[in-house]
Amino acid sequence: MKIALVGYGKMGHMIETAAKSLGHEVVVTVDVAAKDASALVSAGDYAAVAEAVKKSGAEGVIEFSHPSAVIGNLNALIPLGIPVVVGTTGWAKNEAEISSLLEKTNGVAMRSSNFSIGVNTFYKIVEEAAKLLSEYSEYDVAVWEAHHNQKADSPSGTALEIARRVMKGNSSKTEMVFDAFHERPKANELHVSSTRIGSVPGTHTVFFDSPADSIELTHRARSREGFARGSVVALEKLVAKLASGELSRGKLYGMEDLF
Ligand SMILES: NC(=O)c1ccc[n+]([C@@H]2O[C@H](COP(=O)([O-])OP(=O)(O)OC[C@H]3O[C@@H](n4cnc5c(N)ncnc54)[C@H](O)[C@@H]3O)[C@@H](O)[C@H]2O)c1
Fold it and tell me: Of 13, 129, 218, 232, which is most buried, counting CB atoms within 10 Å of its CB?
């Protein structure tokens, strides 16, 4: 497949390697700052991003840029009608806007805050654990994550999804709190805390704690290659499922629709 990469930073470079190793051709790399990108555009010029992708003849787009640019990029890319895989995090609040653009333009996109197979399995384990322990009121629960000090958003998109799964499994937790507490947490509050340090590719822990014991479930990413490969496989699956009629255009999909 001919693939366009929008955002040619750390992830963009890894995705290029993964795409090539899976037999695809990277026809354009678009960035606002990376000197080695094949199309260098001005920051904020989203029309130029879309133009570069259109000109390349790409059959699929993978977008890993910056939380401040992703919505501009998507508004420009989706009307092209080419399937878009979005890895950039930090735009959950704009999902309804992007879904309605997809419907209006008959475009198609999928997004995941984490393309690792391990993490997507971890979501299910966490939801089940939260459900099992929710029957015992002595168990409290919290979510913690650590990432490298270049990450622009916090908490991570993955931590937010983990927190959503905890709340799905344990209905007594109804509100996420991201800041430090300056008073005792209320029983319905789920603490989701973040640490930014060094080069950590991504660690997520769910703590269950009772007066008698504690259970800690941890997913630790070893490198970012798994995310890169996962995003290419997601694009392959999206295109294949559209061709087979299993998925239809006009929608925003997630990992659960593809894997
Ligand atoms: N979903 C996942 O599995 C996953 C995994 C890792 C990282 N991420 C996310 O992917 C994003 C990128 O991560 P990274 O480590 O590659 O960051 P990075 O800073 O190394 O690279 C981002 C690149 O995007 C470029 N950019 C900024 N605005 C742009 C625009 N409008 N058009 C094109 N390019 C633009 C920057 O110049 C930079 O080169 C972040 O949001 C990160 O949280 C997601």
Answer: 232
